[in-house]
Amino acid sequence: MKKIILFLIFTVIHFILTVISIYNGVIIFRTATTPSEIFWDRAMNIMLFPASLMLQGSASEWLQILAIILNSIFWGILFAVIFLSLQKKYKK
Question: How far apart are CA 32 and CA 51, in angstroms?
Fold first, then answer.
């Protein structure tokens, strides 16, 4: 049960951060030039990895949303496994 809760927490956090980075990255209508624009552009690229590799071309909105959700689930699982492994290692 602890693993599932931890997985859900990491997944939700990743999804929220992804949505925030997409929102702030998409409102840049030109090339990112200010430090803030550069930050959000790079944050968006980082948060969307590896989903951005799967959707190189133009995809439908629903496919993009599904890719973002699956991306957050992937990273949620990965962060939970790493966290629990490190926690187990340092408890010994």
Answer: 22
Report phi then psi at 62, rounded to 5. Answer: -65, -35
Predicted confidence at residue 75, as pLDDT, reads: 96
Residues in CB range of 63: below 8 A, 6 or more apart: 55
- Residue 60 φ/ψ region, left for φ over 0, alpha for ψ in the -120 to 50 degree band, beta for the rest: beta
Q: 40: which residues sit within 8 A by CB, 6+ positions away?
A: 21, 24, 25, 28, 32
Greater model confidence, 92 or 9 = 9
Angle (CA) 49 55 60, round 5° = 130
Strands, E assignment, 4-47: none
